[in-house]
Design brief:
The protein is an all-alpha fold. It has one domain (61-218): Orthogonal Bundle (Tetracycline Repressor, domain 2). 77% of the residues lie in helices and 0% in strands. It is built from ten helices and no strands. The longest helix is centred in the first third of the chain and has 32 residues, at 2-33. The termini are far apart.
Length: 219
């Protein structure tokens, strides 16, 4: 009996490992070419498996898109958590997070963010809802640290500002509000971050912000 259970456990673990491998490989393809552009045939070929085998692990492409999008989202969150640990101060953290996020965004119709929002709106909405649950706490912590170190004004409402910041970050990625043909995503992020930071910094924080921007522009 124990032997049979062990076999089942091994088989289940092997299946989960294969599924994880597919998600990782597919995530790379989606990031390179977009969620809509990559087909199940493309994925099967890249994994060197049959499409039939692929469908034993995923009911349809939408399920694979959802799992892959969540995989990428988790990776972005981990990068942001790591940035928070390493950043010298909250202002540097703001701009480092921008750089991390921009690695996954492009200014073209083949970009993964554009295609996810346009062709898989339900999955995109799910990730938007999860953003504040996962990242909102980090934003609040950063704001609190900025107040403690004298960079941000002590009278700001941390909960309010964190929600406003998160909503703004969502807004500049909304292709209906900022069509990709008209707005460069990097410029949008730069303008929004400076707008956000200047609204909450102290005189000390403003000096740090101006110096940081000047140093960044020289690179």
């Amino acid at each position: 009996m124990v032997f049979k259970v062990s076999i089942r456990t091994f088989a289940r673990q092997k299946k989960e490992k294969v599924k994880e491998s597919i998600v990782q490989k597919t995530s790379t393809l989606f990031l390179q070419r977009g969620f809509k552009s990559v087909t199940m045939d493309d994925i099967a070929e890249a994994m060197a498996i049959s499409k039939k085998t692929l469908y034993t692990h995923f009911e349809n492409k939408e399920q694979l898109v959802r799992d892959s999008a969540n995989f990428v989202f988790d990776r972005v969150c981990r990068e942001i958590e790591d940035i928070k640990i390493k950043a010298a101060h909250p202002i540097e953290e703001l701009y480092s997070v921008k750089s991390a996020v921009l690695k996954y965004l492009q200014n073209e119709s083949s970009s993964p963010a554009y295609q996810l929002q346009k062709y898989y709106p339900e999955i995109y909405a799910e990730l938007r809802d999860e953003e504040y649950n996962r990242l909102g706490v980090l934003v609040q912590s950063s704001l609190s640290l900025g107040i403690k170190t004298g960079l941000f004004r002590p009278n700001i409402n941390v909960d309010f500002v964190s929600r406003l910041y998160m909503n703004g970050m969502r807004g500049i990625r909304d292709i209906d509000i900022f069509p990709i043909a008209q707005f460069d995503i990097n410029t949008l992020f730069e303008n929004y971050l400076e707008y956000h930071a200047r609204a909450i910094v102290t005189p000390k924080g403003l000096t740090v912000l101006n110096e940081f921007i000047a140093t960044t522009e020289q690179k």
